Inverse folding.
C-alpha cells in the first residue's frame, strides 16, 4: 500500500507519512488489547502524593542548606571585609583630622634611594 506524496518538494513530509503507515501496519489489535490500562486508583494517588511530599522535603532541605551556607559563611566573610574597610577608612580620616601633616617630596631620587637603603639595612 503506498500513499501519495503530500509534496514532492518536501521529503520530510513524505518520510513522516511513510513512518506512520509502517507503524499502523505493525501493531495489531491483540497487541493493543494486551497493554496495561491506565488506572487512577487510590493507591496510585497515594504514591504520587508520597513522591510529591518526598520531593518537597528534599527541596526544603536544600533551601535550609543554602540558608546555613549564607548565614555561616557568606555573611561573616562580607561583614569582616566591610568592617575592616570601614575601620581603615575611619582611622585614616581621624588621623588626618587630628594630625594634619603635609608631606612634600622635593627630590624623588633621594627619596627612592633612602627607601632602598632602609630596605637593605638589617633590623
Amino acid at each position: 500500500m503506498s500513499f501519495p506524496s503530500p509534496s514532492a518538494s518536501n521529503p520530510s513530509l513524505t518520510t513522516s507519512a511513510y513512518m506512520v503507515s509502517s507503524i499502523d501496519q505493525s501493531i495489531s489489535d491483540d497487541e493493543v488489547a494486551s497493554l496495561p490500562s491506565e488506572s487512577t486508583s487510590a493507591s496510585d494517588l497515594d504514591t504520587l502524593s508520597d513522591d510529591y511530599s518526598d520531593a518537597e522535603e528534599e527541596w526544603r532541605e536544600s533551601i535550609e542548606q543554602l540558608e546555613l551556607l549564607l548565614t555561616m559563611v557568606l555573611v561573616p566573610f562580607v561583614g569582616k571585609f566591610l568592617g575592616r574597610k570601614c575601620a581603615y577608612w575611619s582611622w585614616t580620616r581621624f588621623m588626618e583630622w587630628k594630625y594634619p601633616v603635609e608631606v612634600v617630596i622635593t627630590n624623588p631620587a633621594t627619596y627612592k634611594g633612602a627607601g632602598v637603603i632602609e630596605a637593605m639595612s638589617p633590623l
Notes: Residues 42-98 form the longest helix (57 residues).
